[in-house]
Amino acid sequence: MKEIIRIGSRGSQLALWQANHILYALRDAGYHAELEIIRTTGDRMQQPGFVPPPNLDGKGIFIKEIEEALQEGRIDLAVHCLKDLPTQLASQFSLAAIPKRADARDVWVCEPYWALHTLPEGGRVGTTSPRRRAQLLALRPDLEFVEIRGNIDTRLKKLEKGDADALVLAAAGLDRLKRAEWVHQRFSPEEMCPAPGQGALALETRAIDHPVDEAHDAYVRNAIAFFEHPHTRFCTTAERAVLNALGGGCQLPIGAHCTPEDGHYRLYAQVVAPDGEAMVQLSATTPCTSDPNELGEQIAADLIARGALNLLNASV
Ligand SMILES: NCc1[nH]cc(CCC(=O)O)c1CC(=O)O
Fold first, then answer.
1. What spacing in Å lies between the alpha carbon of 81 and ligand 1's midpoint?
2. What is the residue with the minimal CA distance to atom 11 of ligand 1?
3. How much distance in Å is there from the Cα of 272 to the middle of ligand 1?
4. Which of 105, 113, 152, 267 is the most exposed place for a label (fewest CB within 10 A)?
5. Could you give the CA distance from residue 136 to residue 276 in angstroms, rounded to a whole number?
């Protein structure tokens, strides 16, 4: 009898694309894989009329129910956007593989103003991300913001309807869903520094020392090992270390972007005040042989020495 690898995913358009991408690759490699769709708190929050419970903790709202399924053995493998994963996983879980990253950049989606600087004064940008709002204000203090939620097609429809004049989205999502014709401008990381881990997937399994079935868990870890992409692992580990050292969470206006450059890695990180009036930014390089966590922690310490925590405190 063939062993089956059960993959858990959220039901959003983008999550399904990503989970299927992994599923088909596993099938191509000769494995039996199945998909299980799991509804998370984060998905329910995007429904109209959702009332958040008073004790709701924003961290990990897209992963809680998926990790429960992992822990209970209903699934063997969870496929997430790495940027939605908290910087610290509970000890029962492991980031078993990080596949090659797609385009990590943020993009400008705006008809008919093809670039950020051409949008007329007071233009309304549809984003709820504190990082994107702060970074946009640093470039264009006149901008206004409106809440646009939902999956990518919903957001594009709301843009078409005129609910906003422009959107800023992750390139990876639009590229994966073949909506790249909406992209007018891909921001350089210095203009709009992407969220740590943006554009990368995370393959999460039970940790080695928390198996449901030792032989099956080892089989799954072995099956997914070929997805692992060492450059992406290094870069996203360094980026997430910056975020972790500054207090974690996707609600903080922190960008970090690391790239391999011949023989070394370069990490750039940026913390912006919520009103865009102040910013600290730094970059550092390190040899390929060094520890990505040290690189991220070093940058975070240097950002703190330049006042990053004051900017972050202003944002809560
Ligand atoms: N916060 C939602 C989210 N999580 C991951 C992506 C995009 C895909 C990725 O970064 O891998 C998005 C949408 C967006 O930011 O536009």
1. 7
2. 199
3. 20
4. 113
5. 7
pLDDT in tens, 259-314: 999 889 999 999 999 999 999 999 999 988 899 999 999 999 999 999 999 988 87
Tell me the domain boundaries of the chain.
Answer: 5-101+200-228, 106-186, 235-313
Question: Is the pTM of the predicted complex or chain greater than 0.90?
Answer: yes
Q: What's the pLDDT tens digit per position in 207-238?
A: 999 999 999 999 999 999 999 999 999 999 99
The CB of 202 under 6 Å from ligand 1? The reply is no
Residues annotated as part of the active site: 84
ω into 260 cis (within 30 of 0):
no
Residue 79 beta carbon below 6 angstroms from any ligand 1 atom? no
Indicate if 235-313 has the same CATH topology as 5-101+200-228: no
- 235-313 domain in CATH 3.10.20.440? no
Q: Is 135 in the pocket of ligand 1 (CB under 6 A)?
A: no
Cα 197 to averaged position of ligand 1 atoms, centre (Å): 10
66 touches 75 (CB < 8 A): yes
Pocket test for ligand 1, best of 12, 14, 62, 147 (most atoms within 8 A of CB): 14
CATH architecture of 106-186: 3-Layer(aba) Sandwich (3.40)
* CATH 1.10.101.10 applies to domain 5-101+200-228: no
Return the half-sphere exposure (C-beta side, CA atoms, 13 A cut-off) of residue 102.
Answer: 19
Determine whether the shortest distance from the Cβ of 15 to ligand 1 is under 6 A: no
